[in-house]
Design a protein that fits this description.
The complex is a heterodimer of chains A (377) and B (228). Chain A is α+β, with helices and mostly antiparallel strands and 377 residues long. Chain A is 51% helix and 20% strand. Chain A is built from 13 helices and 14 strands. In chain A, the strands form 3 sheets. In chain A, strands 1, 3, 4, 5, 6, 7, 8, 9, 11 and 12 form a 10-stranded mixed beta sheet that branches. A two-stranded antiparallel sheet of chain A has the order 2-10. In chain A, helix 1 crosses helix 11, helix 2 runs antiparallel to helix 9 and helix 2 crosses helix 12. Chain B has a single domain, classed as 3-Layer(aba) Sandwich (Rossmann fold). In chain B, 35% of the residues lie in helices and 28% in strands. Chain B contains 7 helices and 10 strands. In chain B, the strands form 2 sheets. In chain B, strands 6-7-8-3-9-10 form a 6-stranded mixed beta sheet, sandwiched between helices. In chain B, strands 2-1-4-5 form a 4-stranded antiparallel beta sheet. In chain B, helix 3 runs parallel beside helix 5. The longest helix of chain B has 18 residues. The chains are: A alpha+beta (377), B alpha/beta (228).
């Protein structure tokens, strides 16, 4: 059997000849490969969450040693060290209110900033609707809209008051998806009395951000009571405080790899045991062990490839559905789970490799095994 | 053609030893039709397996056309079977996913012949065996007799010198068994193939050149050599 076309013809005949068995084998493979996709995409989401690129154009002042950022308390007085650096190092210093609230039975972030800061300091872009004009209006980020399935015009019940969603905004870094309201509205709603959660420091472009951060961190007025973070570092730091996400994601990847390896190997081992009659016949009529291995390998890898493609589409659909109906959140930040191109490619080669290993290990002695040993098995 | 000397095959099952073949000496000439009779468990299949290089003897020698099977590696035994031996089994042992033509093609394809060329020859042989209307049928769509004809076609397509048949009529009704018996004798006469047939069927033995009875792993009865 030297022609590839002949090998392909016989393998296809063999697979279709026992269609149900082929289908069941592929379903078995699907279970393990889908597990790989699900675990790897979860691991990647966790890893990405803790490894967002740092925005070095803004700093945050936050109370030291608070478990939850919404427990931080910063007053106007605490803004002074940063305000003194205007205009040489700092563009502006703005108060930011941050709460984790329950709105219409969804645990979400609420941020309040001056209306004029929303676009200039926080880089919010209005996608549709309007900026909040009235005291009962809020805008929501895309992530929040997707997570809670909210739209413009919907009413939200927040902290004992009714609000209307007036617009949908896009914020840099989807992890900061929030409900946004004006500082005036928040002051009256939460009775803030000049206390906020963060001081948001917008740096001048071109300044050495690390030097400014270090200078503020070591300012005697802040040193013992406050921490200064890069804006996007905040959640990274808090995530580390809550759990070691890197460790979790590594563990998930190892689990995923083990699932695809063991699953593929076990399936192939089973297939091979079931094919001992056919192997005996082929050997008896003079087909060499190398040819038999090539046939089994080709047959198996074809099944794995089919299983892999089906698993990819199946898991993608499931994840899309899962993201829509019950999105994963961490600290009320949506954690989008999807299959990356890297995971797709690595998984494919791993599946083929472990499939090949699953054939190689049990067939490595085929060359030296007598035909009778298959008969007596 | 076949020379067997002091052939033993002992199977070990745990601490127990079973002597399936016990010191057989046998010479079979080219073109002979030899039948091995005997009860089940008497060692017939084991002897055929040893002659076909499917199993290894515990001791003794099996030489076919000067090729010593007991010394050969598995790979050279496979090549030897491919080039010199055809097998017919009781339960046909056709590959269930392949149709009649594809099953018959396999020994030629094992020799590196492309399916297209092998298929032409397979069709010729199947037609000769009366299966011209069953070429594309799967084994499950064929009767027992038809399946055995396909198996016979597979055994002769690569033009071996020796056919080893293990209970070739064991799973067939008497009329089909008779047809298969006639067919094997025809092939023996027309193509000069050497046949060694292990069977319970005395009808096969009727026109055989020599008949042996194998009981408890030993030859108990050896008929006269009709080939002289």
């Amino acid at each position: 059997m030297t022609k590839l076309g002949d090998v392909f013809r016989f393998v296809i005949k063999d697979l279709t000849g026992d269609g149900w068995r082929t289908v069941i084998t592929i379903i078995n493979l699907l279970v393990f490969i889908c597990s790989y996709f699900a675990l790897v995409s979860l691991a990647e989401a966790a890893y990405n969450f803790g490894n967002q690129p740092t925005d070095r154009s803004a700093l945050l002042i936050i109370s030291r040693n608070v478990f939850d950022p919404s427990e931080s308390t910063v007053t106007d007085l605490d803004f002074l060290p940063a305000e003194e650096l205007i205009p040489k190092y700092v563009q502006s210093v703005s108060p930011l209110v941050f709460k984790i609230i329950n709105a219409n039975n969804n645990l979400v972030q609420l941020r309040a900033a001056r209306l004029e800061d929303m676009q200039t300091v926080h880089s919010l872009k209005l996608i549709s609707g309007d900026w909040p004009k009235g005291a009962d209006e809020v805008v929501i980020g895309e992530g929040t809209a997707a997570m809670a399935n909210w739209k413009i015009g919907d009413r939200l019940y927040i902290y004992g008051a009714d609000f209307i969603i007036s617009g949908l905004v896009r914020a840099p870094g989807t992890k900061f998806s929030s409900i946004w309201m004006t500082l005036d509205t928040a002051t009256s709603l939460f009775n803030l009395k000049g206390t906020y959660q963060f001081a948001w420091i917008q740096l001048q472009s071109g300044v050495d951000a690390d030097t400014v951060r270090s200078r503020l961190q070591n300012d005697p007025r802040l040193i013992d009571r406050f921490d200064v973070y890069f804006a996007d570092n905040l959640y990274q730091e808090y995530t580390k405080a809550v759990s070691d996400m890197q460790g979790v994601s590594s563990m998930l990847v190892i689990l995923a790899l083990a699932a695809v390896m063991l699953g593929t190997y076990c399936n192939i081992f089973l297939i091979l045991s079931e094919r001992s009659r056919d192997i005996t016949i082929l050997r008896a009529i003079g087909v060499q062990s190398g040819t038999i291995r090539a046939l089994i390998t080709f047959r198996t890898l074809l099944q794995i490839a089919i299983g892999y493609i089906l698993s990819f589409f199946g898991t993608s659909l499931l994840l899309a559905w899962f993201n829509r109906i019950n999105p994963l959140t961490l600290h009320s930040i949506p954690l989008p789970v999807s299959i990356s191109g890297k995971a797709l490619l690595i998984g494919f080669f791993l599946s083929l490799f472990f499939g090949w290993a699953g054939i190689w290990i049990p067939t490595r002695h085929l060359r030296n095994r007598s035909v009778a040993s298959f008969i007596h098995k | 053609m076949i020379s067997i000397q002091k052939l033993y095959k002992i199977y070990r099952r745990g601490t127990e030893s079973v002597e399936a073949v016990r010191g057989i000496d046998l010479e079979i000439k080219k073109g002979e039709f030899v039948v091995i009779l005997g009860p089940s468990g008497g060692g017939k299949s084991t002897l055929l397996n040893l002659i076909g290089g499917i199993d290894h003897p515990t001791s003794g020698t099996v030489t076919i056309n000067g090729f010593a099977l007991e010394k050969a590696s598995e790979e050279s035994l496979t090549c030897f079977r491919r080039d010199h031996i055809g097998f017919i089994f009781q339960f046909y042992n056709l590959l269930s996913a392949l149709n009649a033509v594809e099953n018959v093609c396999l020994p030629l394809m094992a020799k590196g012949v492309a399916f297209k060329q092998a298929g032409i020859k397979a069709v010729q042989i199947l037609t000769r065996l009366g299966l011209q209307n069953r070429l594309n049928h799967l084994p499950s769509e064929l009767s027992g007799g038809e399946q055995q004809r396909v198996a016979i076609a597979r055994s002769i397509i690569a033009r071996p010198e020796l056919i080893l048949a293990d209970e070739p009529t064991g799973d067939l009704d008497s009329s089909t068994a008779r047809e298969i018996t006639v067919l094997m004798h025809e092939l023996n006469k027309q193509m000069g193939l050497t046949f060694v047939v292990a069977t319970h069927n005395l009808r096969i033995a009727e026109n055989a050149d020599r008949v042996f009875e194998l009981r408890d792993g030993k030859i108990q009865f050896n008929s006269n050599d009709k080939t002289g």
